[in-house]
Write a structure and sequence with these properties.
Blueprint (H helix, E strand, L loop, with lengths): L1 H65 L26 H14 L9 H12 L6 H19 L10 H12 L2 H4 L6 H8 L6 E2 L1 H11 L3 H11 L7 E2 H13 L17
Antiparallel strand pairs: 1-2
Helix pairs in contact: 2-5, 3-4, 7-10, 8-9
Length: 267
C-alpha cells in the first residue's frame, strides 16, 4: 500500500509538472508572438515616419525651387521697396526730385512751405467735386488731420514744413517698414472723389478732374493718363491708380511710369 501511495504521488507530480511545462511553453509562445508582432509594428511605424519625413523634405526642397531667393517681380506687381532691405533707400537725386515735386503740389498757395491749411484747401477741391460720400469726406479729413498732428504737431498758421524737412521725413518713412506701407493711405479717397459714376475705374475725362484739383494743366493730364493706362483700354482702375500713386513715393526706378502720377517733375 505504501508503495502504491508513492507511485500515485509520483504520477501526480509528473502530471503537474507536464501541465506547468505546457503552460510555460504556451506563455513563451505568446510572448514570442507578441514580441514578433511588436517588432513588425515598430518597423512599420518607423518606415511610415521615414516616408513622411522624406515627403516633407521633398516638399520643402520643391518650395525652395519654386520661389528663388533672388526672384524679380514685374512692374505690375509689388513695388521694389518691398523687395529691398530698409535703411538704404531715398538716396538718389531722382527720388528727391519726386518728393520735391509732391511738396510743390501740396503747397497750394505757393509760398514755398506746407501748412495744414494747404492740405485743407486741397481736400476741399476734391470734396467740391461732389462724388465723395459724407462718410468718405469725414474720413478723408480725419486721416489728414490725424497724420499732421502725429507728425508735425499742433495746427497753427506758424507750423510750416519746408522742402528740406519734408524730404527728411519722407526719407524716414521710406526706410521704415511699417510707415512705408501707409504712405499711400489717402490715395483711395482721391480716386473716389474723381470717379463720378462710382464704377471703380476712371476715364480720361475723370482723370482730368484729378489734375485740375492739383492745379496742373490739361496737357500734363494727357501725358500722365496715357502712361498709366498701359493696356490702352481708356480706363484706369482703382487698383492701378493706387499702385502707381504709391510707387511714386517708394520706388527709385526711373523707368517706372509712376513718375508721371503727380505731373511733371521739378528740376
Amino acid at each position: 500500500m505504501a508503495f502504491s501511495l508513492i507511485r500515485n504521488g509520483v504520477r501526480l507530480s509528473r502530471n503537474t509538472f507536464d501541465k506547468q511545462l505546457v503552460f510555460c511553453n504556451f506563455s513563451n509562445g505568446v510572448k514570442r508572438e507578441l514580441s514578433t508582432n511588436m517588432f513588425k509594428t515598430c518597423r512599420c511605424t518607423t518606415s511610415l515616419l521615414a516616408t513622411s519625413l522624406s515627403c516633407q523634405l521633398s516638399l520643402r526642397d520643391y518650395g525652395k525651387q519654386a520661389k528663388p531667393k533672388n526672384a524679380k517681380y514685374s512692374s505690375e506687381s509689388e513695388s521694389d521697396s518691398d523687395l529691398d532691405e530698409p535703411g538704404h533707400r531715398g538716396e538718389s537725386d531722382f527720388w528727391r526730385r519726386k518728393i520735391r515735386t509732391f511738396h510743390n503740389i501740396i503747397d497750394v498757395n505757393k509760398d514755398g512751405v506746407i501748412s495744414f491749411h494747404d492740405f485743407e484747401l486741397l481736400i476741399e477741391r476734391f470734396v467740391a467735386l461732389g462724388n465723395l460720400s459724407e462718410k468718405d469726406t469725414q474720413d478723408f479729413r480725419e486721416l489728414i488731420k490725424e497724420w499732421w498732428i502725429k507728425r508735425w504737431g499742433e495746427i497753427t498758421p506758424y507750423n510750416l514744413v519746408t522742402v528740406e524737412k519734408y524730404l527728411e521725413y519722407m526719407h524716414h518713412v521710406l526706410n521704415d517698414r511699417k510707415l512705408v506701407r501707409r504712405a499711400h493711405s489717402f490715395i483711395p479717397y482721391i480716386f473716389r472723389a474723381i470717379d463720378k459714376d462710382q464704377s471703380g475705374s476712371i476715364t480720361y475725362e475723370e482723370y482730368k478732374l484729378f489734375f485740375d484739383c492739383l492745379g496742373l494743366p490739361e496737357k500734363d493730364a494727357i501725358l500722365a493718363f496715357r502712361a498709366i493706362d498701359s493696356n490702352g483700354d481708356g480706363k484706369i482702375t482703382i487698383k492701378e491708380f493706387v499702385k502707381h500713386g504709391r510707387d511714386f513715393f517708394v520706388t527709385e526706378d526711373e523707368n517706372r511710369i509712376s513718375k508721371y502720377f503727380w505731373g511733371p517733375l521739378v528740376q
